[in-house]
Amino acid sequence: METSSIDSLYSTSMRLVQLTKTDFHRYLYEKINWDNWLIAIKGARGVGKTTLMLQRIKENFADHPEKALYVSLDNLWFANNSLTEVVEYHYTHGGTHLFIDEIHKYPSWQTLVKNIADEYPDLHVVFTGSSMLKIDKSQGDLSRRIRDYTLNVMSFREFLEFEGITKLPQVSLTELLTNHVRIAMQITANVKILPLFEKYLEYGCYPFYKRDFDGFSERLQKTIHTVLNEDAPAIEDITYPTIQKLLKMLMILAERVPQTPKMNELYAILETNREQGLRMLYLLQRAGLIHLLSTETKEFKNMTKPDKIYLNDTNLMYALTANANIGTLRETFFINQISAVAATNYPLKGDFIVNNKHLFEVGGKSKKFTQIKDEPDSYLAVDSIETGHGNRIPLWMFGMLY
Fold first, then answer.
1. Diameter over CA atoms, the chain
2. Which of 41, 109, 153, 265 is 20 to 30 A removed from 188 (C-alpha atoms)?
3. Is 268:262 a contact under the CB 8 Å cutoff?
4. pLDDT, tens digit only, all 402 positions of the chain
């Protein structure tokens, strides 16, 4: 490999690092143990995985920029060159850290990572991949060595900081349930929270909204197409007709959520069978596009019909539906935020059961305890109020959990 050939990768890496801002960090930045030798960061497209790596390089390798290299595997450079060549060159020229973006674009990536770990044991490797990425537990030696993290969409708490409104600490679920009145009063004393919450629901989940505010919904739609047309085939063995059915399924679900799904009707529309239909449904969830709610947590290998289906976040609702239903928006926000920190299932009564203990109903400010009044450890998550009382908690506060 000619030196001039690989120089373009170093130039691109240094330029991207230089342009990266470090005034705002996603919540995961401080949770990652960057000293690990093999780090995987998974997440939906557009949530900030690339920025996370570039920030790490900028803040820790300013004095020795040659030691860290960032590469993206969707770079056309890799059409005629291999990543193994880059690893060898970087290592033999003093590199100590390699940051790889879009690892799922590389054929047999697990074998590649295992070979790097075996042949360059003192090289730190951080890689990102689609939320669909599966670290094969059958390759036990590799799965034990990789420390993997998942980056969720931006929380309402992060949105407030990203907008320069206020910087707030994360609140644990226990603290929220017991001290929500005090916490809400401290926040709302300085911030008009409800108008900001409405903005977040429409466009605050994905940091890229700032780069193209007017075209945010269109860009989010294009991101969805990229996920299904490029990322999914790179990870799953699916055909073009299946990809088209995935897109059609997503659009149908977007118009119907969160009703209890009539799966046979859906399979008929898509001209598919139960097994293939469930496989597509769970793939959409792994892609970070929908959330499947069931009475018990299901694994991909044990697929069964979910009890309810939601889009993954409220921004997707605005991007995919002409008129986003307010009730569905509220429930979608709740399950999106709380599922990042707790197990969430479908209860016999109420809307959500969290950690098999806390029962929640979600609604507007006139919401009453009627449905769950006799249930222990039950709460209302109420929209359009700044502060609550007792077991009546403002809905927006569930955006403070991460």
1. 73
2. 153
3. no
4. 566 689 999 999 999 999 999 999 999 999 999 999 999 999 999 999 999 999 999 999 999 999 999 999 999 999 899 999 999 999 999 999 999 999 998 888 989 999 999 999 999 999 999 998 877 555 546 778 899 999 999 999 999 999 999 999 999 999 999 999 999 999 999 999 999 999 999 999 999 999 989 999 999 999 999 999 999 999 999 999 999 999 999 999 998 888 676 888 889 999 999 999 999 999 999 999 999 999 976 554 556 889 999 999 999 999 999 888 999 999 999 999 999 999 999 999 999 999 999 999 999 999 999 889 889 999 999 999 999 999 999 999 999 999
Q: Which strand (E) or helix (H) includes residue 71?
A: strand 68-72
Tokens of 339: 């599922």
Backbone angles phi, psi at 356, to 5 degrees: 55, 30
* Pairwise CA distance, residues 349 & 343, whole Å: 17
pTM of the model: 0.93
Residue 15, φ and ψ in degrees, nearest 5: -65, -45
CA 199, CA 295: separation in Å to the nearest integer? 32
